[in-house]
Amino acid sequence: MLTLQFMFIYRSVRSEGKGSSTEWMCDMRNSPADRGFSSNATRRLARFLSLSAAGLALAPGLAQAQDAPVVLDTVTIEAAGGEADGMLGGAIAGAAGADYAVDGYVADTTASATKTDLPIVRVPQMVAVITEEQLDDRNVQSLTEALTYSASARAGAFGLDPRFDSFYIRGFDATYTGVFRDGLRDFSNSFLLSQVEPYGLQSLSVLKGPSSGLYGSANAGGIIDLTSKRPTTESFREIGAEYGTNNRYQATFDASGPLGGSGSTFYRMTGVARDSDTDNPFVSDDELLIAPAITYAPDADTSFTVLSELQRVHTGGTAAYVQGNRDVTDVPYADPNFNDLDQTQGRIGYEFEQRLSDVFTFRQKARYQGMDIYGEYLYPYGAAVNGILDRGSGVVAQTLHGGVADTQLEAKFDTGILRHTMTGGIDGYYTEFTNKEGYGTAPSLNLASLDYSRGIARPDYTVAEEQTQRQLGLYLQDIIEIDRLTVALGARHDWVKTETATGAPGDLGEAEDQSDDAFTGRVGVSYLFDNGIAPYASYSTSFSPNIGLNPDGSAFVPTTAEQYELGVKYQVPDVNLLVSAAIYQIEQEKGVFLQPSADFSTSVQVQLDKLRSRGFEIEAAAGLTDGLNLTLSYAYLDMEIIEGVPGTEGNTLSSRPQHTAAAWLDYTVQNGFAKGFGIGGGVRFVGESFGNDRNSFKNDARAYVDAALHYDVQAVEGLRVQVNATNIFDEDAALCTEGFCYAEQERQVVGSVRYRF
């Protein structure tokens, strides 16, 4: 299997190198001086998001022969939230099983943190796990929504936009370099970001702070690791239906159990079909998804799981509205006849684990992933003049495919009083990316009459690009335990090679090569007292490659960061409660951003910045009594531009509020005539923030109120009826990020019925 390591290596970073679109036109309202600091691919997304509000609507930038059957034990995970019924035991109840389903709101372990089964309370790093029950109680509709109750995970900074899940962790944009799935990098590039369907997840883990020591190139703020639904030993079937705001129709199904009469082979099949409008009248949110999985576990030491997914999404080419004065109007500048975005994506991969002895365990994960996208959109030429908005048209077609793999050997052994869990591994990825874009003219829009019936010609493709990228990483980690003391040591070296050719369709220039390498690591120590309190300290580093050239012709070097963190965790003995708190400082250097010319007519990429993120955060998850669950979070963030675009030094990065807080409480009656009835509610507070990096205006503080009612029908076992409402009081103030303003998602109400049998 080791040869597969090199067949499936994969990841992607969008090129903006020599010959790419490193220079673009802008007016004063579209000044790149307000676009801030972000990784190469993230700058591309913000151009897809923010320029859709004032320039280039679909250009992301600033902004994945059988032996005799053996009957397996049910899960042996020691989960604070309770045992996950029917999850596979045996070999996969170790590190690979640490992310499997957990009943309740509190997870005890996550392999995402250390690639081992080290309990979260002993991990010297801030880690949050959003469990499946949390996702279900809130009936989460997107990855962005899933993160809204987690400390320091700032979601929705670009307002309503079903095309992408965008978010910050500890102030750093993690949209492109911060998403992993089942422990492997989930690729993205330019307009192509993987669509995430929450119904297909068992949980997601948020690792705060640099994590390159285990995962390679990643952003400074942290990563999110999504755990796909897996086969179970116990059979079940579930069907569901939803209806909600904006004519949201959705049907779901989920089935799992032994395959045939086998005691060693298990399956799972999950599906979603959705037809939905959105707050924007020209943007839909339609989806089809099918996700089969199968596990073969012939004995307690061996498991082989295949995970796959095929998904198709139809939405709008731009979700933006005509800009107001530091605000947005309710007028889309798109056209219903020229505003489609169609994305198809698929993935198939495997996870293999073999316990070789009491000391050694071998693991390998690999995945192939492919995506393609086609989009049509309009964009405005500056602000409206005398009520007339001039517009241009654009088309984009892109493909991205490749493979990623991680092979590791774990050894558990003692040296005197020291207990070691040592993990050594090699991982990597390979990607191929193609891009074609075209730009043309479109009819002007009279903001008084709003005539959307005029024809729009599809422009020809005029820009093309092809890119391949290879990465290889070697890592070694040792978790040393001395009674209640835990020391975590990790080191990694990565090599990345990128080849990029740009030009016109059918006439690409010679490919430009760029090679980068980086050494990263982590050291941490924690001590678990008898009363459940575990103070810790850690130091970690990260890197992320940048593709392109400075104005002087020198190649960009990787963006690097280092973090110091002090924290404490509290897992109350015999109580289903985990509280984590930390203070930290992250310094990032050599980020790439756009610097405007003297007259603001053009901009060019330069590498000069230094950012510093300082903060405090506290997060808690609890199952206080039977039926009563709770999550709490608070974060303080001081995000300062140390070096950057002239006029921004010493300022706060836009859309990074100093204060955020959230609380969710859910209670289900356990006895009596109301048994099975439940009610939940939550409040999310987002403090004031600056609307641009020049700090010339602010976004107001705001609070969102969410609620849920659910009933497990006692007369029909397995039937659950539920109503969820988000943003009940319809908080709709504009949200401005990097100098552009976006519409918040309005109040949403969704009713759902699920029947499990």
CA gyration radius, whole angstroms: 25 Å
Number of helical stretches of at least 4 residues: 7
Biggest beta sheet attributes: 22 strands, antiparallel, barrel
Quickly name the level 1 CATH class: Mainly Beta
Could you tell me the CATH topology label: Maltoporin, Chain A
Rounded to the nearest angstrom, the distance between the terminal CA atoms is 39 Å
Weakly predicted, low-confidence segments:
1-83, 89-94
- The strand count comes to 40
Q: Structural class, please?
A: mainly beta
CATH architecture: Beta Barrel
Shape: globular
Structural domain count: 1
Helix share of residues?
Answer: under 10%
Q: Kindly report the average pLDDT value.
A: 87
How would you characterize the overall build of this protein?
With 757 residues, the chain is mostly beta strands. It has a single domain (4-65, 228-384, 392-446, 460-756), classed as Beta Barrel (Maltoporin, Chain A), CATH 2.40.170. The protein contains seven helices and 40 strands. The strands form seven sheets. The protein has a 22-stranded antiparallel β-barrel. Strand 4 (167-169) and strand 5 form a beta hairpin. The two termini are 39 Å apart. Mean pLDDT is 87; it is low at 1-83 and 89-94. It is a multi-pass membrane protein. One of its GO terms (cellular component) is cell outer membrane.
